[in-house]
Specification:
This protein is mostly helical and 205 residues long. The protein has two domains: 9-50, no CATH class; 57-198, no CATH class. It is built from seven helices and two strands. The chain has helices spanning 9-23, 42-50, 57-85, 96-126, 134-161, 166-189, 195-198; strands at residues 29-32, 36-39. Strands 1-2 form a two-stranded antiparallel ribbon.
């Protein structure tokens, strides 16, 4: 016979989350599929955005998107800066293979700076730390970023082979690498080992 008072870590985490959801009262809100209730009052919105432990899904997703755009803007900003300063290095009239190689180096520098911005902002404002030492967390983050870099580079080369402009190829790099990062950071970088913490990781830029 099951003990009705048995309290596992998983059930306690779910209970804590449920209590937070039921105790969260809004002045006015709309109900959206998947995200649940989203407040319409500015004070409620600000209050939700400040929550770090078991935050409302809409708030964590919103912050993830905002800082994801920031990291992407840094990546593309560095790319456009370097491509203008060293225009001949990534000139449109270069042979395709040379252009792909040169553009990969430029995007690598831009990607590194964008990844640093993404890690710092995600760790400080979006997600609870994974419970690992920050150096190990950052190593995993860099590894994930490396995988996404190669995914983005593959997309970039494909667009160049198709004859599209290098700026379109650079944008495809940013978008495809961001998609890979979304999944990898959710399940690898900011995941926690304890069952109590897993429910606080609803999303992971």
């Amino acid at each position: 016979m099951n003990d009705p008072y048995e309290n596992t870590s998983e059930s306690s985490a779910e209970a804590a989350k449920a209590m937070m959801e039921t105790s969260r009262q809004y002045k006015s809100a709309i109900s959206v599929p998947v995200f649940g209730k989203i407040p319409l009052s500015l004070s409620d919105i600000i209050s939700d955005l400040k929550v770090r432990e078991n935050p409302p899904l809409w708030a964590q997703f919103f912050k993830y998107v905002v800082f994801g755009f920031l990291a992407t803007a840094v990546l593309l900003g560095v790319y456009f800066f370097l491509s203008r300063v060293f225009g001949g290095y990534v000139a449109d009239d270069l042979p395709k293979e040379t252009l792909k190689s040169h553009l990969a180096r430029v995007m690598f520098v831009a990607f590194l700076l964008g990844s640093v911005v993404a890690y710092v902002t995600n760790r400080m404002f979006v997600f609870t730390a994974s419970g690992r030492h920050w150096t190990m967390e950052f190593i995993i983050f860099v590894f994930v970023s490396g995988v996404s870099f190669y995914a983005g580079n593959f997309a970039k080369d494909w667009f160049i082979d198709e004859g599209l402009h290098k700026d379109v190829a650079a944008l495809s790099f940013a978008v495809s690498s961001a998609l890979v990062n979304f999944v990898a950071r959710k399940y690898l970088v900011f995941s926690q080992s304890s069952a109590d913490s897993n429910n606080s990781k609803l999303l992971s830029y």
